[in-house]
Amino acid sequence: MPTPGAPRRPGSVRRPGPRLLGAAACLVLGIGLIGGAAAGSWLTDEADAAPPTAEAVFAKGRDVWHNTPVDRLFPRTVNGLGVGPGGADRTWTRIAVAPDGGCGHAYDPKLAAALARTGCTRLLRATYADATRSSVITVGAQITKADQPGMMALNTRFSTRSLGTRTDLLPLPYAAKGTPAEGFGPAQRASWTVRILTDIPVVVYAVSGFADGRTVTDPQPAEAAVRPGVTTAPAESGLGHDAKGLADRIGTDFRKAAGSPTQTTEASS
Q1: What are the extents of the domains in the chain?
Q2: Distance CA 150, CA 231 (A)
Q3: Cα separation, 92 vs 79, whole angstroms
Q4: How far apart are CA 122 and CA 219, in angstroms?
């Protein structure tokens, strides 16, 4: 045993024991794990920030009808800033939501035939009234069974053959009982628009009419009725603006629910 206070010989320096070496190894390993986790988190954040692919958006669009609350797809109140005649603001209030179901009895026969090639998974509809309760508008969204090329082909067909402007290819209203739209039948349709979306498998349409139940003998496509200087009844009453404005908004809401980062161009009437 060395004398207390005496200097140690060079060969007598203690080496770290097994416990100390183990603790050091654990410390190094822990630091490595923390660094790896942080790097993984950064990579995950970057992946989450990347925009969804077109394929992912299209697939999600097929499921939004049962994955999204109805108030997000058909809001209770829709404010249309500057979308009325002469740039006036419009406000629409939802007065009825139809039970979701199939597409039977939702369209005039020729429009039903034109849309049949894409199939129908579900049809969602809601009816709105304007702020004065003088006009009523049904907005619908048909979830199709088509793939993206199928939707592109249908959009092209509607555009090149002007199917969205023909008065024998109109959507039907949802005339909910006990509402201002109760008398909104086929003879009351004044203006309409049909949109074939191509980034999601959805057909959006809107059809408008007078809330007092008056018959309209010459309905006019919304895109024609909103042009400056047009003096038809659908144009001067704002019914073309109602149909176009609500179709624009509902189409945007369905796209947002599917995560679509952009708005594509589709045929409209």
Answers
A1: 17-48, 54-258
A2: 38
A3: 7
A4: 27
pLDDT tens sequence across 123-156: 999 999 999 999 999 999 999 999 999 999 999 9
Contact status, residue 203 vs residue 194, Cβ threshold 8 Å: yes
**Residue among 128, 167, 117, 125 nearest 142 (CA):** 125
State the alpha helices, DSSP H only, in the chain. Answer: 18-49, 54-61, 64-67, 70-73, 109-116, 148-160, 222-225, 233-236, 239-258
221, containing H or E segment: strand 220-221
Provide the sign of the torsion angle of the four alpha carbons 5, 9, 12, 15, taken in this order: positive
Closest CA to 123 of 151, 99, 146, 100: 100
**Model confidence, pTM:** 0.80
The predicted structure's pLDDT at residue 31: 46
Copy the structure tokens of residue 29.
């390993």
CA proximity to 117, closest of 159, 141, 145, 143: 145
DSSP letter for 68, please: S
